[in-house]
Amino acid sequence: MDSLQLIKTFSEVAARGSFSRAATRLRISKPTVSKHVAELEKRFDVRLFNRSTRAVSLTDAGQVLLERSAPLIEMAALTRAELQGHASRPRGRLRVTAPYGLERTAFPDILGEYMRSHPEVHISLRVTNGAVDLVEDACDIALRLGRLRNDNLIVRRLARVDWVLCATPQYWARRGMPAQPEDMRTHEVLSFMSHAGSALLPFEVDGRACEVPVTSRMECNEPSALVGIALGGLGAVAVPAVLARPHLERGALVPVLRDFMPRDIWFHAAYAQRRHNSAALRRSAGVS
After folding, report:
1. Helices and strands (H and E) in the chain: how many
2. Which of 5, 68, 196, 212 has the most CB atoms around it within 10 Å of its CB?
C-alpha cells in the first residue's frame, strides 16, 4: 500500500476521532481503515492510537506523525489540483520544435492567436530542420513538413502544402524543360530532404505518390537557401510554393511539371504519446 494513502487514512481517523466516520469520509470500509492504520503502525513500530469501545485518541507518537504529515498531505492535495489543472485547461510550458521558413507562412499569426487564447501557456520554440527526438529532447510537439515516415510518432495533419518545382528561364533554356517526372533524372537538382544519401523529388502520377531519384548538385536542409542558389541558374529546386512565390510572380523562376506536383505534402503536428497529454498540447495539436 502507498505510504501517502496510509497516512491520509491515519489523518482522517485523527480528525474524525473514529474509524467509522473516517471510513465514511474516505468511502472505504471500516476494516480497510483499520488495516491501513495497522500497516502504518507496523511500519513505524509504534502505536498511533489509543482505542476503547467508545473513543479513539492519538498517542504521543500519533501526535508527532499528525503534525509532521499535515504539510505533506497539503502539498499532495495542491500538487494533485495543479496537475488536474494542467489536464483540464491549457497552462504551463509547451515545448515546440518547428522548421525554418515558417516565418513566411501563416504560422506566426496562428501561434500568436494561440498565445492570446491561452495566456497561461508559455511557449518554448526551437527552430531547426534537423531530426528531433521528442522523448530524449523533452519536446512536446514537433511541427514538420513533408511525408513523415516515423511510425513511432502520432501525427495529425494541419494543412496541405502546395509544392513547386522551378528554375530560372536560363536554366530551362540550357537544359530543356521536362515533360514527365522521369525527365528530371538528367537534370541538376538542388535537393531538399534527401534520404539515405540519395536525392529524391516528390511527384504524383495517376493519383499515386512517387519519388524520382535525381542527381543532386547541392543538398541542404534549409529550402529557402536552395531557392537563393536556384536564382543563380545552378539547378532546379522543389520547395513549398510559398518560399518561391515572389520569384515566380516576377518571372525569375519558372515552374514545371505542375500537373505532377504532389498533393499529399502536409504540414504536420507530431507527438509521442496519445494518453494523458496536457491540455496545452491537446489544444495546440487539435487533439481531443
Report:
1. 9, 13
2. 212
Q: If we measure between CA atoms, which residue out of 203, 210, 251, 216 comes closest to residue 231?
A: 251
- Secondary structure letter of residue 206 according to DSSP: T
Quick one: which of 168, 169, 287 has its CA closest to 231?
A: 168
pTM over 0.70: no
As given in the structure block, the three cell numbers for residue 224 are: 529557402
| 110 or 191, greater pLDDT | 191
> pLDDT by residue (tens digit) across 226-250?
999 999 999 999 988 888 999 999 9
Q: Which domains does the chain have, with CATH numbers?
A: 3-87 (1.10.10.10), 92-160+266-285 (3.40.190.10), 163-260 (3.40.190.10)
Which ranges in 163-286 belong to alpha helices (H)? 169-175, 223-230, 241-249, 279-285
Crossing angle between the packed helical segments 3-16 and 60-88, to the nearest 10 degrees: 120
- 67-to-15, 58, 72, 132, 172 alpha-carbon distances in Å: 12, 11, 10, 48, 83
126-135 residue pLDDT tens: 887 766 777 7
